[in-house]
């Protein structure tokens, strides 16, 4: 009986950190989606849609960028100099649509003002795309190389290179977070406040939505960190 109780306690002790990690990883993504959906209800008091606000801000600030509707997620493309909004935010007359549109225009302002972190992120994304492919290929080839070389040093070195390649995604996310925060609270929020597009109560809600927009990549960053940590543990066990 005592041994069963000890085993149960050990299982609970092991389970608690696991659940905590899952909560930390999953909660930000859930909260972002919940917040954006909650305030995506059509709101007739607004003077225009998200797309109309984005177009107005682009013209008012004389930004050399275009505006498009997309099904690939709301984003600003620094390569094509284009603000892209999904259909619900492009045509939607909601607080989420307005705040997200202002956030993406915020990225366009960053690009136009040569914001260093945005430029760094753009360069890192290019490197990360190649490094992730290399890292994935190394993981796939690792068992074969281990059998062929029969050398733990060679397989360990290959695993280390793979972990290093995959770590680039973590670096991209770490740079992305301050870029997103700046787009929301240093660019978009002042535009909404100074332009008096929203009332004081609406601005309060917009701040929540801008926070959600800024934290969109947090879940991805945490997943990347956990993934790299998992492979580092495998490397240490070799």
Summarize the structure in words.
The protein has a three-stranded mixed β-sheet with strand order 1-3-2. Helix content is 76%, strand content 5%. Helix 1 crosses helix 7 (200-214). With 238 residues, the protein is mainly alpha-helical. It starts with a helix and ends with a helix.
What's the short story on this structure?
About 75% of the residues lie in helices and about 5% in strands. With about 240 residues, the protein is mainly alpha-helical.
User: Which outline best applies?
Assistant: globular
Q: What is the percentage of strand-forming residues? A: 5-15%
Task: Please state the oligomeric state of the protein chains shown.
Answer: single chain
Average pLDDT, rounded to a whole number, is 82
Low-confidence stretches: none
The number of helical elements comes to: 8
User: Largest sheet, if any?
Assistant: 3 strands, mixed
Spatial strand order of the main sheet: 1-3-2
Structural class comes to mainly alpha
Write the layout of secondary structure elements.
Blueprint lengths: L1 H37 L11 H11 L5 E5 L4 E3 L4 E5 H4 L4 H18 L3 H34 L2 H43 L5 H15 L3 H20 L1
Parallel strand pairs: 1-3
Antiparallel strand pairs: 2-3
Helix pairs in contact: 1-7, 1-8, 2-4, 4-6, 4-7, 5-6, 6-7, 6-8
Please give a handful of descriptors for the protein shown.
238 residues; mainly alpha; 3 strands
